[in-house]
């Protein structure tokens, strides 16, 4: 009984324990169910409230789940999407890609890609889709609307395209460098300005486009700006006292305006320089200033063209070059006029170079004179100087100028080369280039015009002075025969014996004086015609040279007798006849013989001999001769060998030249001081007399 009770009690205890376990299990189940429901609620809440569209589909692509964001994305209700295939919303052209992606996902892969999905209203929306597989074999896709991103990217592409276009086609140089000052961006404008291609410039140091003497200072300034010590993110570069100077690939330096900006990109600091070549603007300003100064120099120099050119050389070395050399053409030969240098310590070398003769053999200056074209030597080497030096001393003086580059420009006015203008750079200065060559041509043109005007003014002054002198001489020379005529006329009025003989002699004197006056008047008329640009009139006929010489000797006899000189005739045998104006040729002989009589010591010779298709005539004297420097001027109008010699108007030889040239011949003179002078001239033969 007692045992039975204990068994019953034990059974009840087990039953209680079992009930407790059931209750505990029920509680656990309830808790698990509550947790599941809570989890499902949270999942559903997350599923529904997520900002991205969430799509769940079977392996064949049919939707089984879609959240509210997905519905809004495509514009459908949930019930309209469940059961439909993804292929209905993909562009037909993308179906093949979609099939490949599906196979990849079902094989356990995942993929993030962009698509265009068709909305209910027929429009397409750009999305980014992240797809993977679930444990139950379904596919899950998180879909994000990237329309705004596409718009931003498109705007960025447009902006970059515009920026790229602006940078690429800008005429200004735009160059970016990194923190180590190496070039990272190089536009077409930089290629145009500096001459380097993009491939040559990218990766190179910024020193590439900076003159060597300025590189250290420039690197320091750029580094200070890059460190950000200055508040502004951008500023202009350079100042009036320290302008920006660029260096082209060909070694030419140029003035520039530049600005620099600083930008932090991806943790790196980028500096961008925008640079504009202002050399042309500077050149125009400098030229205007320089030409104004040239005008002032011309005014101060007046009609003295040599002084004007010398002052121009000094002006050039003060403004545009380190040294300058000016050569002039005088009497058909080159003459060194001025050598100047900006460095006062080289004044002695310049003075020595002025005294050095110019090469007689072909050289750079003579080549420029001959071609009338400028010459640019951008790099003067040791070999170049040695090849063009006259001697060791000349080479030493040239080296003293330390030339590194130079330009020689011809001074041409009205088609005539007046000389050359050369200027250049010395060591430590910039080298001259093509822009300087164009400037030199413009400068030389202005200087040549001013020089020609100064020469013309000087010649005009000299001509006026000579004219006044000639008028005085002519008045004096006309007064003598006129006085003679008056005197002889008075004698005719006096009653004396031997009337007939007295009248005959008086008549001859009157006739001689009148003829002399007529000759002077004829000379003046001929000169007036020549001054007016006319050629002297020629009445051609067949003329016998021997007879012409005889007549010339006879007509000159009276003048020769008065001068105490004798005349010899030397005519070659069988002289061909010439086509000439006999009266005009007698005028030539009269002037030449009369001129010889003034300076002869007593012996004058006239002669002629045959030449091919011509007859050569000459008039020679044994007089004092003509100095070599005066020979080129003997045929100039109003010229006289000695200004103190008042015998004649200085018209005869210029008229001789005009008459001979009107016949188609030529005239020249050969003279030796204290030996004598011979004038030669030629006249064409008559056809058949050769």
Protein described:
With 690 residues, the chain is an alpha+beta fold. It folds into five domains: 1-45; 50-145, Beta-Lactamase (2-Layer Sandwich); 169-277, Beta-Lactamase, CATH 3.30.450; 282-460, 2-Layer Sandwich (Beta-Lactamase), CATH 3.30.450.40; 535-684, Histidine kinase-like ATPase, C-terminal domain (Heat Shock Protein 90, 2-Layer Sandwich), CATH 3.30.565.10. 48% of the residues lie in helices and 23% in strands. The protein contains 20 helices and 23 strands. The strands form five sheets. Strands 6, 7, 8, 9, 10 and 11 form a six-stranded antiparallel sheet that branches. α10 (305-319) packs antiparallel against α15, α15 (434-493) packs antiparallel against α16 and α19 (582-599) packs antiparallel against α20 (652-662). The termini are far apart.
Backbone structural class = alpha+beta
Count of separate DSSP helical elements? 20
| Average pLDDT | 79
Give the total of beta strands: 23
- Rounded radius of gyration (Å): 54 Å
Strand content: 15-25%
Distance between the termini: 189 Å
CATH architecture of the largest domain: 2-Layer Sandwich
CATH fold-type name of the largest domain: Beta-Lactamase
Overall shape: rod-shaped
CATH class (first level) name of the largest domain: Alpha Beta
Q: What is the number of domains? A: 5
Characterize the largest beta sheet: strand count, sense, and whether it forms a barrel. Answer: 6 strands, antiparallel
Uncertain segments are: none
């Amino acid at each position: 009984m007692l045992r039975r009770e204990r068994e019953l009690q034990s059974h009840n205890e087990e039953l209680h324990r079992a009930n407790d376990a059931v209750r505990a299990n029920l509680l656990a189940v309830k808790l698990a169910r509550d947790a599941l429901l809570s989890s499902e609620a949270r999942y559903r809440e997350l599923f529904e409230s997520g900002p991205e569209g969430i799509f769940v589909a079977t392996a064949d692509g049919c939707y089984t789940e879609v959240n509210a964001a997905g519905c809004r994305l495509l514009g459908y209700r949930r019930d309209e999407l469940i059961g439909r295939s993804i292929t209905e919303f993909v562009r037909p052209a993308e179906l093949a890609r979609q099939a490949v992606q599906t196979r990849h996902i079902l094989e356990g892969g995942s993929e993030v890609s962009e698509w265009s999905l068709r909305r209910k209203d027929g429009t397409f929306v750009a999305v980014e889709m992240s797809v993977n597989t679930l444990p139950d074999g379904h596919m899950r896709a998180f879909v994000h609307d990237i329309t705004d991103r596409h718009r931003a990217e498109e705007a960025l592409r447009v902006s970059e395209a515009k920026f790229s276009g602006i940078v690429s086609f800008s005429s200004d140089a735009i160059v970016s460098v990194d923190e180590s000052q190496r070039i990272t961006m190089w536009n077409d404008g930089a290629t145009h300005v500096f001459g380097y291609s993009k491939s040559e410039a990218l990766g190179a140091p910024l020193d590439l486009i900076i003159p060597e003497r300025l590189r250290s200072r420039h690197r320091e300034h750029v580094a200070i700006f890059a460190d950000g010590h200055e508040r502004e993110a951008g500023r202009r570069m350079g100042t009036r006292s320290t302008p920006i100077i660029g260096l082209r690939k060909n070694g030419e330096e140029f003035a520039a305006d530049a600005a620099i900006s600083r930008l932090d990109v991806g943790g790196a600091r980028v500096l961008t320089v925008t640079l504009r070549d202002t050399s042309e603007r500077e050149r125009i300003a400098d030229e205007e200033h320089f030409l104004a100064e040239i005008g002032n120099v011309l005014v101060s120099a007046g009609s003295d063209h040599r002084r004007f050119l010398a002052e121009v050389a000094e002006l050039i070395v003060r403004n545009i070059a380190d040294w300058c050399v000016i050569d002039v053409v005088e009497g058909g030969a080159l003459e060194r006029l001025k050598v100047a240098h900006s460095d006062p310590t080289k004044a002695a070398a310049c003075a020595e170079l002025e005294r050095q003769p110019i090469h007689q053999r072909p050289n750079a200056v003579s080549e420029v004179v001959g071609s009338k074209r400028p010459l640019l030597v951008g790099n003067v080497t040791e070999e170049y100087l040695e090849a063009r030096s006259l001697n060791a001393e000349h080479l030493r003086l040239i080296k003293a100028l330390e030339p590194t580059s130079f330009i020689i420009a011809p001074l041409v006015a009205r088609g005539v080369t007046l000389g050359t203008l050369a200027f250049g750079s010395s060591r430590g200065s910039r080298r001259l280039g093509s822009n300087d060559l164009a400037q030199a041509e413009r400068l030389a043109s202005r200087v040549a015009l001013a020089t020609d005007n100064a020469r013309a003014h000087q010649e005009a002054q000299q001509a006026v002075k000579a004219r006044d002198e000639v008028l005085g001489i002519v008045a004096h020379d006309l007064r003598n025969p006129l006085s003679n005529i008056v005197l002889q006329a008075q004698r005719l009025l006096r009653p004396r014996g031997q009337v007939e003989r007295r009248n005959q002699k008086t008549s001859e004197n009157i006739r001689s004086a009148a003829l002399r006056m007529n000759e002077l008047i004829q000379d003046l008329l001929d000169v007036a015609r020549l001054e007016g640009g006319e050629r002297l009139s020629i009445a051609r006929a067949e003329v016998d040279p021997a007879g012409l010489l005889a007549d010339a000797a006879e007509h000159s006899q009276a003048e020769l007798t008065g001068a105490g000189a004798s005349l010899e005739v030397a005519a070659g045998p069988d002289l061909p006849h010439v086509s000439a104006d006999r009266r005009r040729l007698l005028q030539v002989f009269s002037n030449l013989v009369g001129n010889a009589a003034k300076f002869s010591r007593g012996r004058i010779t006239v002669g002629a001999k045959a030449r091919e298709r011509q007859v050569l005539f000459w008039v020679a004297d044994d007089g004092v001769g003509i100095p070599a420097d005066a020979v080129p001027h003997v045929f100039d109008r109003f010229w006289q060998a000695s200004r103190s010699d008042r015998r004649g108007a200085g018209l005869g030889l210029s008229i001789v030249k005009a008459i001979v040239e009107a016949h188609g011949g030529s005239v020249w003179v050969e003279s030796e001081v204290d030996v004598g002078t011979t004038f030669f001239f030629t006249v064409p033969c008559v056809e058949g007399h050769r």
